[in-house]
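General statements about sequence and structure are easier to judge against a single worked case. For one protein, we set the task of working out the structure tokens from the amino acid sequence alone. The sequence in question and its structure tokens are set out directly beneath this paragraph.
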Amino acid sequence: MHSRTSSKGFEKFFESQLAWDEGMAFAAAKYLKKNPSQQMVIIAGGGHIIKREGIPDRLERQIQAKPAVVLNSLNGIPDSGHGDYLLFSPEAKLAPAGKIGISMDDTPKGVVIASVLHHGAGSKAKLLKGDLIKKIGSTVIKNTTDVMLWALDKKPGHATTIETSRNSQFKTSKLILGKKKPFSMFGKKSIHGKK
């Protein structure tokens, strides 16, 4: 996905990833220094730990102890120098997750819809770019994490209501979660609203 961005966009992505790695290592080191008898497991994507770069080397620098890196075998067997342990596990087929078909931003006013995918659940519920999400079902929405936690165990076809605010007007719509994103977010005609 990252290869589709411009070189300037990739530079910003790379800088963000470095800041994320440093922030995760700092938070982990702070906890471990305060709780020296405790152990910690950090679950992170391969790009944050491969070859011990990212979180592991930053954490090691801050706590003067070598963290162990456990890699899984889902993307083939990595080089032995990429980590300390390799976890072999059978691939598990997960049930499809229900999708709203929107992207969101946290703002001081609340969760704002940044884009709506054509033919997705959000589009069918007549959600628009700029709408504020106030409530999904009985869950009050204060930030994007609230939306993600609400959606965590929902399957395609799950029906509920979504309450939004548009130009200070409140609206309740029926929302039926879809199976997948209908179009790529990178496609020119993938979203409602002007870019």
Observations:
- The two ends are 19 Å apart (CA to CA).
- Residues 157 and 177 are 5 Å apart (CA to CA).
